[in-house]
Design brief:
single chain; 126 residues; mainly alpha; 2 strands; 56% helix; Reverse transcriptase zinc-binding domain-containing protein
Length: 126
């Protein structure tokens, strides 16, 4: 049986996830924030510029926002690895726990990270 759907409060307002998903709380928060931010940008484009975004552009923008957050966490981890060993190790563990725990967005082996998503080619980003 599939797990129950999340409530509106969990999806939009950041209420805690069900107990069996608490390990993904930080990742969920970042994903939720990215989606809401991109939807806000799309709304502004519609309201103030009368511009509509095609669905592929919206999807690409959401994934780009998510991966930007992930890559910033990765860069932070790499930067901290040059600091005392405990700081680098702690940052690497946080990165893996948040972004690579299910190997959906990225996977890691040792000190290298492989990103599983590559943005599709879209005329908007040229």
């Amino acid at each position: 049986m599939p797990w129950p759907r999340l409530t509106w409060e969990q999806c939009l307002l950041g209420m805690d996830l069900p107990a069996h998903l608490l390990g993904f709380q930080r990742t969920w928060s970042l994903l939720r924030g990215s989606v809401l931010w991109v939807l806000w940008l799309r709304r502004d484009a519609q309201v103030f510029q009368n511009a509509t975004w095609p669905t592929p552009q919206l999807e690409s923008s959401i994934w780009d926002a998510v991966l930007d957050l992930a890559r910033m966490a990765s860069d932070r981890s790499i930067s901290l690895s040059r600091q005392p060993p405990q700081a680098g190790q702690k940052a690497r563990l946080a990165l893996c726990r948040c972004w690579a725990s299910t190997a959906t967005l990225c996977s890691h082996q040792g000190d290298s990270i492989h990103w599983n998503y590559i943005r599709p080619v879209c005329g908007v980003f040229r």
